[in-house]
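The passage that follows is intended for readers who have already worked through the single-chain material. We present the inputs for a multi-component assembly, then the predicted structure in tokenized form, and finally a short commentary. You are encouraged to pause after the input and sketch how you expect the pieces to fit together before reading on.
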Amino acid sequence: MDREIITLLQELVRTPSVNPPGNEHDTALVLANWLTARGIDVELIPVQPGRSNLLARVPGTSSRPALALCGHLDTVPIGSQVWRHDPFAGEIEQGRMYGRGTADMKGGLAAMAGALAMLARDSGNLPRDILLMGTVGEEVDCCGVRAFVEQGAFDQVGAIVIGEPTALEIGIAHKGALWISVTVNGRSAHGSMPSLGSNAILNTTKFLNALEQFDFRVEAHPLLSLPTTSPDQIEGGSAPNVVPDRCRVTIDVRTIPPLAHDSVLGEIRRLLDKTIGQDPDAFAQTEVLLDRAPLDTPPSNPVVRAALDVLLDLSGEHQPIGLSYFTDGSIITQSYKTPIIIWGPGEPGQAHRADESILLESVLMAAKAYSNLALSTGF
Ligand SMILES: [Zn+2]
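Having made your guess, compare it with the prediction:
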């Protein structure tokens, strides 16, 4: 089985699914063919032309709610840096496979497929259905997981594992992200007579200074610390001698549980109104560019305990961790209370970089871990 899992990973890497544009259908087909050849029921569900989610199931023998293993089928582009290894060849060197998506997260998908194959082979005592859900679009707009949510695909699911790279540590929390575009308007005037205008850049500065002191009124999260704000883009003004009537900034807000994004946005709007002044021409518009909820599964949740037990057997004692990046779990958690853990092979630092790679041993260990978790009666 080990060799088969590694060959599958290689084939997944050799089938690019760079997003944009995605084109994940062929990658989903590689997984589907591999699973079908091992007697597993698989469905490809079109989301957009050339883009299909994958849903596979190994039936269990009791009525416990299913365990869903989830992973995204797309990858980020290869970037402008020169790679030492062909990004789409899956070259193996000293126990590591190189290529775009090896760590993020075709390695996780191959491990999950491997777990299903092992469970299908000797499925006699599988206490629950185990699902493999491959999603399109995670790297851009999460359209795949949104489609699954709309179809009710998580309705009978009791626990979810997302196989993003965590070096097999058990992630139980991650921050949310709220990206806001703020446009401050003003009134233009001759640069030599600023009092006749309303300076949009100056007003934006007042807002940004106030934002630096923004109080989220929330306790620090034990694994994620405090929320943050960061103004990351700014543009405004038209000439060196014209009072600017427009300035636009984008703000990257990273939130922690239990903050609700609509109330954070409301507070930021209030701060904006308060700081840009009374001038009738000074007004601001906000637009949400991205909205991903934070994730928070209690460490005492039975599936977390069961995963820690699995890990204890395989590699000794571990503690749950918090993660800096967000996942498809942000979308699921907005509609379902189902516990979610982020648990996958590959080091997080390998994601999105040139010469991305994964330790093959960790892929095989992940397959074993997923399979053992599916067999656990602890949740
Ligand atoms: Zn990822």
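Commentary: The first strand starts at residue 41 and ends at 48. The pocket of zinc ion is lined by residues 72, 104-105, 138, 164 (CB under 6 Å). How closely did your sketch match?
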